[in-house]
Design a protein that fits this description.
Number of helices: 6
Shape: globular
Order of helices and strands: EEHEEEHEHEHEHEH
Number of strands: 9
Radius of gyration: 16 Å
Strand content: 15-25%
Strand order of the largest sheet: 1-3-2-6-7-8-9
Largest sheet: 7 strands, mixed
Distance between the termini: 31 Å
Amino acid sequence: MLETVEQQTGAAPEWSVVWLHGLGADGHDFAPIVPELVRPHWPAIRFVFPHAPKRPVSINGGMPMRAWYDIVSMDFRSRADAAGVAESVAQVEELIAREQARGIPLKRILLAGFSQGGAITLATGLTRREPLAGLIALSTYLPEVDAAASQLVDGANTQPLFMAHGSADPVIPVQVAEHSMQVLKQLGFDLEWHRYPMAHQVCAEEIHALGQWLQQRFEG
């Protein structure tokens, strides 16, 4: 089981959000977003921020760092190490199962991720036989996008999906993200897309839009 940082917005959480960080960061990276995102009238939520394992990253000269998978090329269609993606998806599934064991049903569990973490969120979402309450993919792309149709399992596209990206992102070009978005829409996902004039980051407008989207999940 991955080590995690946790925050609860109330004593008895009714919902869980598992949030995956980006390359080289850790579970503390997005913890500060909680007070900016959460609204007073929302149900109690447990935020779970796991630490990715440390592994050598090829494009960084083999330097070990926290990563959800190795980056083996600059081509976004094949850059993600497939075995690493599969391993991380399995570890995320363990965290989801733990939330179920703590009494949170799948219909109240959301999976979120930024950059590499968002790629794992999308990869996990494609292969979930029992849908989650929603998927959140920020500044990211779909690994193995050309194989997405064959990887999609029945019912996975019933999961609502929020995607947002910066138009000036130097790490993952917005065109790459938009291609992933179009593929996911074609696969039938109910997808809300936002594009902001920013780099590889999050912004206040994005957090507000995500809050609106989460509000719909809580009301549903």
